[in-house]
Specification:
The protein is of the alpha/beta class. The protein has 20 helices and 8 strands. The strands form 2 sheets. It has a 5-stranded parallel beta sheet, sandwiched between helices. The chain has a 3-stranded mixed beta sheet with strand order 1-2-3. α1 crosses α4 (about 55-65), α17 packs across α19 and α18 crosses α19 (about 410-425). Mean pLDDT is about 85; it is low at about 80-105.
């Protein structure tokens, strides 16, 4: 049952902003499980109350999609684990001590994110080759590698695979793997505690390989951008290896300085596109085998044709099939695959970008041609962002396809989606508008 909860968490991650998921959902663990109920543990009482009040309907929805709608969900405060005494902890000379912070040296590299487990297809072949070259070369032929891709297409897998390969060759390599948000938080904490010089030394002199994820998070953070720029210069001057990932090209990130944009794109830039049909078949086949599942060829072909969004969507489908087969005794056949796929991807004719555009335009009383125009006036830009957010959530179209309907690039659509998701947390009026429109779309799907 813990595996089912982990898959539900994975599905929730695609619907929530990174900060919301990391703060509220990621810490939840499975404490107890029976045939009819599941007890989930939260780190404290405040977290438990917040999750129940704000995320319980969405969590139930994901359990229903996994075929576990009959489960009664209960939330408890997880029992506290006894902390080891300071004397029992190993010393870490590279650790920057930050008072009042539960700080880690790096995010952990996941054992499954290696090159041999990455499925290569036409959409990611160049990024894969560039990553292997970056990991294998004793000296870099290019100063850095920037991988651009939407969520769930494998840029994190390749970034971590580089780290694994370097450690295989040189276990003493000082690899710093983190998100741009982690870098930002550490720098802010260093400033507040008077440890900024130690922070600079840690990254400029104590780092051999920097793997920095989600650099688009640095939008508008001028001081962080400047400090990162100096750090990148220092690493480049010492021929250190640097890898970046981003969902948006730096030039399209709002309020990203020209200086940092230039540094991020000074090396090799690669993109990872949505997997084509043949690649999706390979992904489903290999991941099913890894889960010890035997899928009929017609099931694999159907899922590969139906699930086009990203790898996580395909992983979710396989988990749902396995859960229903093991827990309900269901036979994995084409009918079951259609039922699972129907919960993960919109059915043909149910909701389309055109239908969402009509709904948004009628609600905000604007003409469709103005939503897709070049105008940046708020009266048109706001409905445009809402439209992008709703299309990403309720349609099965790719970011590029959504962008074509409003004459925008896929990166602009992604930024609009993240902007709406972020502002909904602090703007109750916006949240009310989105919830109303979402309810109307969900009524259309019934």
């Amino acid at each position: 049952m813990s595996a089912v909860w982990e898959q539900v968490k994975n599905d929730l991650q695609s619907d929530l902003s990174k900060n919301s998921f990391s703060l509220w959902i990621h810490p939840i663990s499975c404490l107890e499980a029976t045939e009819t109920s599941l007890v989930l543990g939260c780190p404290n009482r405040f977290s438990k109350n917040w999750v129940v009040e704000n995320y319980l309907p969405l969590i139930k929805e994901k359990f229903e999609a996994a075929g576990m709608g009959h489960m009664a969900l209960k939330f408890k405060v997880s029992p506290r684990k006894r902390k080891p005494s300071p004397a029992s902890l190993p010393a870490d000379p590279d650790q920057l001590p930050l008072p009042s912070l539960n700080h880690r040296r790096n995010l952990w590299l996941k054992s499954q994110f290696t090159f041999d487990r990455f499925i290569v297809g036409q959409s990611n072949e160049f990024a894969y080759s560039a990553s292997r070259s970056m990991a294998s070369a004793s000296q870099c032929d290019y100063p850095s590698l920037l991988m651009l891709a939407n969520t769930g297409l494998g840029k994190t897998h390749l970034s971590q695979a580089i780290g694994h390969r370097i450690l295989e060759k040189d276990p003493d390599s000082r690899i710093f793997y983190m998100t741009a948000e982690d870098f930002t938080n550490e720098m802010i904490a260093s400033l507040k505690t008077g440890r900024i010089e130690a922070f600079k030394k840690r990254y400029r002199q104590g780092c051999d390989v920097l793997l920095l994820e989600e650099v688009h998070f640095l939008s508008g953070k001028e001081k962080i951008q400047a400090e990162l720029g100096y750090t990148l210069d220092a690493l480049a001057n010492d021929n250190k290896r640097i890898v970046f990932t981003s969902a948006v090209p730096p030039k399209d990130v709002p309020r990203m300085s020209r200086e940092l944009t230039s540094r991020l794109t000074a090396g090799l830039v690669t993109t990872i596109a949505d997997p084509d049909y043949e690649t999706r078949v390979q992904i489903l086949t290999r991941k099913a085998a890894a889960s010890h599942m035997t899928l009929p060829r017609e099931v694999i072909d159907f899922l590969a044709e139906r699930l086009r969004r990203d790898v996580r969507q395909m992983e979710s489908a396989l988990t749902c099939l396995r859960a229903r087969a093991e827990l309900l005794g269901a036979k994995i056949d084409l009918e079951l695959a259609k039922e699972v796929a129907g919960a993960l991807a919109s059915n043909d004719g149910c909701v389309t970008p055109a239908g969402i555009m009509d709904l948004v335009c009628r609600y905000y009383r604007v003409a469709p041609e103005m939503v897709s125009s070049a105008s940046r006036r708020k009266v048109f830009a706001h409905p445009r962002n809402i439209y992008a957010y709703l299309c990403r959530r309720y349609s099965d179209e790719t970011l590029a396809e959504i962008g074509k309907t409003i004459n925008r690039s896929h990166s602009t659509v992604l930024y609009a989606v993240e902007l709406v998701a972020s502002r909904m947390k602090s703007d109750p009026d916006l949240k009310r508008q989105v919830e109303f429109l979402s309810k109307r779309i969900e009524d259309m799907l019934k």
